[in-house]
């Protein structure tokens, strides 16, 4: 059992918890027997949901009734005490009882409590919030998505290394192309921080990634670049814009194909392609932001996702640990 990936789970965070969280664990375990779950939360509720569904050798429940609320500010969450399910799950990683931690709870609280408990990787000044986005050829890693509103050139270089390390952990057979999100592809475009970062990365030789210069917002999904780097303000705006656009397209397509008889006939004829399209844009496939730069990985599952989405986040946890993310960052950072 020592070779299992030990995942610390905050079972009380997010909508519909702990039911959704435990359903996600059960669903994940049905297809993957490589994980051991240290589950933090209300033991009575959790035990009723999980008993007889998973062999006890694959999980442990740590009882705590104190929880971080979705309405808590990061400061309120930290003051709520060291016996919340969120704090204890992160502490489990800190004391090396778990390899990685996941929560669907309050994002701001998770980032603050993680920073209070965990150390920064040496030579990294700021952690970053990263996520997976779909593109024409597969997936991209995008960072920072809101942890740092202002960044200097060293931060962006660090994000490039961390993003490339994350991509290599998830897709070990590929060497990623890294690009800086900018308002144009020419070297003279952008602010001074972006241009300075471009010069540094253009001279840097790395076995971890290839530097592909700048990428514009309308090229994010073309699949040529695997790691997209920006400051947290720009990255968050890009993320929300992409999510809104995807929702708009799927909603309008539904209306067009179900609004009248011709639309219904067309939707029936194109049923196979429509299912493929819907699956491609299913946000549950890309659920799970990763907080990187600390000496242990922290995964944030979307609070509103269902058990399928949470299960997919557990797969991401498994790949991150098996891909030795922290070692990859440490060996490539200057």
Strand and helix map with partners:
Elements: E1 5-10, H1 19-31, E2 35-41, H2 43-50, E3 59-63, H3 74-79, H4 85-94, E4 100-103, H5 107-117, E5 128-134, E6 139-143, H6 153-170, E7 177-181, H7 192-203, E8 210-215, E9 227-229, H8 232-258, H9 261-269, H10 271-280, E10 289-292, E11 298-300, H11 307-322, H12 325-332
Helix pairs in contact: 1-2, 1-11, 4-5, 6-7, 6-12
What Rg is obtained from the alpha carbons, in whole angstroms? 21 Å
Counting helices, strands and paired strands, the structural category is alpha/beta
Please outline the major beta sheet.
11 strands, mixed
Instruction: Write the CATH homologous superfamily of the largest domain.
Output: Isopropylmalate Dehydrogenase
Helical proportion, percent range: 40-55%
Q: How many DSSP-defined strands?
A: 11
Give the strand order of the largest sheet, numbering strands 1, 2, ... along the chain.
3-2-1-4-11-10-5-6-9-7-8
Report the span from N to C terminus.
36 Å
Order of helices and strands: EHEHEHHEHEEHEHEEHHHEEHH
Q: In one word, what is the shape?
A: globular
Per CATH, the architecture of the largest domain is 3-Layer(aba) Sandwich
Low-confidence stretches: none
Mean pLDDT: 87
CATH topology name of the largest domain: Isopropylmalate Dehydrogenase
- Our estimate of the beta-strand percent is 15-25%
Q: Any idea of the CATH class of the largest domain? A: Alpha Beta
- Tally of helical runs: 12
Domains (count):
2
Which features does this protein show?
alpha/beta, globular, 11 strands, eleven-stranded mixed sheet, 2 domains, single chain, Isopropylmalate Dehydrogenase, 334 residues
